[in-house]
Amino acid sequence: MISSSHKLIGDILTKRTRRLFSAEFKLEAAQLVLVQNYSVTEAAQAMNVGKSTMDKWVRQLKQERQGKAPKASPMTPEQIEIRELKKKLARLEEHNEILKKATALLMSDSLNNS
């Protein structure tokens, strides 16, 4: 009979670590299929990634090139820039709202003290 502590150790030893890939790596990999006419299987083998991973990256790059917003992290430099600009815009709009409220509060205080 296997004790629960032995099972836990076995689970830890067999657990795979998830590999992380940069946007540049994903872009390069997907371009093997879309630009250099590799098959998905050939590109996956060449880049040492799984076929389903390569399928996902190719599908994502196709969507980005069609102007659709990616569900995952963007790969093209343009999509990365758009994401960063959207974050900056949201931050600036939030600051603008805070300043408007602060100005209104200061104005009402000023009128009440007059």
From TrEMBL:
Gene3D superfamilies with a match to the protein in the record: Homeodomain-like (1.10.10.60)
InterPro entries for the chain: Homeodomain-like_sf, RD_transcriptional_regulator, Transposase_8
Coiled-coil features, chain-numbered ranges: 75-105
Protein's UniProt name: Transposase OrfAB subunit A
GO molecular function annotation: DNA binding; transposase activity
Keywords, sorted A to Z: Coiled coil
Pfam family, one: HTH_Tnp_1
Bilayer-spanning residue ranges: none
Origin species: Proteus mirabilis
Similarity section: Belongs to the transposase 8 family.
GO BP of this protein: DNA transposition
